[in-house]
Amino acid sequence: MSKYIKPSSKKAGLAPGSYVFIGDQKVEDIRISITDYDEQNHKFISVKDLEEIFPFRDRPTISWINIYGLHETSILERIGNHFKIHPLVLEDIVNTDSRPKLEVNNNYVFIVLKMIYFDEEKSDLMIEQFSLIIGRNLVICFQERESNIFQSIRDRIQDSQSRLRKHSADYLAYILIDVIVDHYFVVLEKLGDNLELLEEEVLDTPGKDTLRKINHFKRNLILLRKHIWPLREVLGGLARGEIEHFEKTTLPYIRDCYDHIIRVIETIESYREMATGVLEIYLTNASNRLNEVMKVLTIIATIFIPLTFLTGLYGMNFEFMPELKWRSAYPVLLLIMILITAGMVVFFRKKDWL
Fold this sequence. Notes:
Blueprint: E1 31-37, E2 42-47, E3 62-68, H1 73-82, H2 87-94, E4 101-104, E5 109-119, E6 124-134, E7 138-143, H3 151-158, H4 169-204, H5 210-239, H6 251-313, H7 329-350
Parallel strand pairs: 3-7
Antiparallel strand pairs: 1-2, 1-3, 4-5, 5-6, 6-7
Helix pairs in contact: 4-5, 4-6, 5-6, 6-7
């Protein structure tokens, strides 16, 4: 199975709203944590029983529920039933190959985007789906695995003077999206470092593995573009201010995040052009090296043409060849061959062929 295409064929023929997890198979239990806060108080809860999250549906405080793991679809179905999440939305949540998108329902807003990490050991991208349900005072996050990318947000919630504590759930959703978008710049910075190393390798010491590295880098950029480009539409839809779940005070922050994603997309396009240029340089260098080899071989063959003619001429077995009777015929012929070789080398040098 290709690592670039998830096995979506598992869903073929199933009814709409069927929950089929198509990500990597996992055996660990789903983990759930809750961050509940307002201007005066805050608390962090590590959930042990699923029913502990149910009272947070209609609380006056801001409730941020994190669900780590999408492979136990029965648990997600219970969560969806309690929080009145549409079955098609739950289907998109467990379908980890979903395209980033924005959907507006009567009671909540549904957003899908991608969390992207860079594995420096393998020089490869790690893609994780991140889904958001944004309600009146509620934000539910669905992640494939647990990570510390949002630890800075939890630290800000602990600060009673933080602006985050004074805003509604839509501002929390913006902060989550903004952290993910900012992390794209970290990934791009590491890809940029790899691109510089590739450029130096192509110009200085291109080897048999260089072409594979260039091709792998271009594939990473294609994958990155695939998962980030649609996010421009998502943020653009939020920035227009037509969604009642997002207050007008949050819109300037959304527009700023939209500007960031535009910068990310422009950087990706620049890297794609630069990677194409690196590939062209590699192919040009390879062609030049081949031309140099062919030039040397052609010169050698050209030098030996008259010498081969002379040796072939005097290798014929005719009886009446006067030169065969001369005592000095052999050294004279060798001298002629040396002079021809030297003359041709001088001629090639004057023509800058050598």
